[in-house]
């Protein structure tokens, strides 16, 4: 097939297929070979990937035709646009799925699908800052690096609170720091699944402290990049939703548990905050509201997440969470059996381990910090992967 390469030449109103010259044919075949090499390299890495929380068990082959289109969900997900080639209807359906999961009444909800958790965190923190311009951000040492960066972008560097050994907030030090700024509103960014240890900051505990010290002005933005897609499907998991807790906004990564072949993020907040803050957001020449961090947004990622949700639904996601947690326990038991130092937080699929040698870390694409690393059990990870990983660890010990 590659030998018969043609190019389109426009002649008047008709398009004629004309053979490409030999030199161009060779250049094009060279490009195709390079693409094959890139694919083979990426595909090989997919076969032994334990270090980062990406769902690599994907099947979007039937949507390949959409790569020849350019859906652009410009501006507000709840407003049409004169750009008029978008997937905003599907975007809203995907948002509603998550709003329902987190018990945020749809008539009170606002959000959009952006480029990932970092953008969702920035949007949540922006809303917090605009609600309370004199407020102070608080986040833990184990918070994702995007939170500190976003605080800097917003001109409010904030207070970094030490963490407990497991990665959770040190709540005593948190309230101590808040009391030093007792006249300032609290803009707090707890984490639902810290990057290295998979810890969940306890919002119930934080609220008890707020009540005890009569702290009434606060915004809670939950960074739920990985666990935001898992917690609602867990058996006997933690209660974390807009109905049970006064959560004000949440950011969830779409390319992690849900699964998307490109970075994507789900952001949700209460509509009233956006209505209060963004009152002059109409942009005439695109016919929509400029309420999102980025103007042009990827309509393809919204479509892919919508497809994934429609294809799987609650029952399949629930089974996938169970499978991930079952294999996590299998991996921990195997690590214990060979005496390899490890730690696992409750409800987590992230196992902290003593860092293996560089060769093992590179082969399995492990995330490392100091003398620690971690493995994260996502949908593509099987017992066979774990057995092979354990074999490598035993080989290092020997």
Name of the CATH homologous superfamily of the largest domain:
Type I PLP-dependent aspartate aminotransferase-like (Major domain)
Computed Rg: 24 Å
* Helix percent band: 25-40%
Give the overall silhouette: globular
Q: CATH topology of the largest domain, anyone?
A: Aspartate Aminotransferase, domain 2
**If strands are numbered along the chain, what order do they take across the biggest sheet?**
3-9-8-7-6-4-5
Could you report the average pLDDT, rounded to the nearest whole number? 92
What is the CATH architecture descriptor of the largest domain? Answer: 3-Layer(aba) Sandwich
* Major β-sheet annotation: 7 strands, mixed
Through-space gap between termini: 50 Å
Order of helices and strands: EEHHEHEHEHEHEEHEHEEHEEHEEH
Which stretches are low in confidence, meaning pLDDT under 50 for 5 or more residues running?
A: 1-12
Quote the beta fraction.
Answer: 15-25%
Tally of distinct domains: 3
| CATH class identity of the largest domain | Alpha Beta
Secondary structure category: alpha/beta
Number of beta strands: 15
Number of helices: 11
């Amino acid at each position: 097939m590659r030998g018969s390469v043609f190019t389109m030449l426009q002649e008047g109103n008709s398009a004629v297929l004309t053979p490409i010259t030999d030199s161009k044919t060779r250049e094009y075949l060279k490009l195709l070979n390079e693409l094959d090499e890139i694919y083979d390299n990426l595909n090989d890495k997919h076969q032994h990937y334990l270090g980062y929380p990406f769902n690599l068990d994907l099947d979007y082959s039937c949507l390949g035709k959409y790569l020849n289109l350019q859906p652009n969900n410009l501006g507000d997900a709840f407003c049409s646009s004169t750009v008029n080639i978008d997937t905003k209807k599907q975007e809203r359906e995907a948002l509603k799925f998550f709003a329902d999961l987190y018990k945020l009444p749809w008539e009170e909800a606002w959000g959009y699908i952006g480029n990932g958790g970092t953008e969702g965190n920035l949007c949540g923190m922006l809303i917090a800052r605009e609600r309370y311009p004199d407020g102070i951000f608080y986040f833990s040492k184990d918070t994702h690096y995007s939170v500190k960066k976003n605080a800097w972008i917003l001109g409010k560097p904030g207070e970094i609170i030490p963490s407990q050994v497991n990665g959770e907030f040190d709540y005593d030090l948190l309230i101590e720091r808040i009391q030093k700024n007792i006249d300032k509103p609290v803009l707090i960014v707890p984490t639902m699944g810290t990057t290295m240890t998979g810890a969940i900051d306890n919002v119930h505990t934080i609220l008890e402290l707020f009540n005890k010290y009569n702290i009434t002005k606060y915004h809670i933005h939950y960074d739920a990049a990985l666990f935001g897609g898992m917690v609602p499907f867990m058996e006997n998991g933690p209660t974390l939703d807009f109905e049970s807790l006064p959560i004000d906004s949440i950011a969830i990564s779409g390319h992690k548990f849900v699964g998307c072949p490109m970075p994507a993020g789900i952001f949700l907040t209460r509509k009233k905050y956006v209505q209060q803050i963004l009152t002059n957001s109409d942009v005439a020449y695109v016919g929509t509201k400029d309420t999102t961090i980025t103007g042009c947004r990827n309509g393809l990622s919204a479509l892919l997440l919508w497809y994934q949700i429609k294809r799987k639904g609650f029952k399949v996601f629930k089974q996938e969470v169970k499978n991930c947690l079952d294999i996590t326990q299998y991996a921990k038991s195997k690590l214990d059996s060979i005496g390899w130092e490890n730690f696992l937080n409750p409800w987590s699929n992230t196992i902290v381990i003593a860092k293996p040698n560089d060769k093992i870390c590179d082969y399995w694409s492990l995330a490392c910090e100091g003398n620690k690393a971690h493995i994260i059990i996502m949908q593509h990870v099987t017992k066979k992967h774990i057995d092979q990983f354990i074999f490598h660890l035993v080989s290092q010990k020997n």
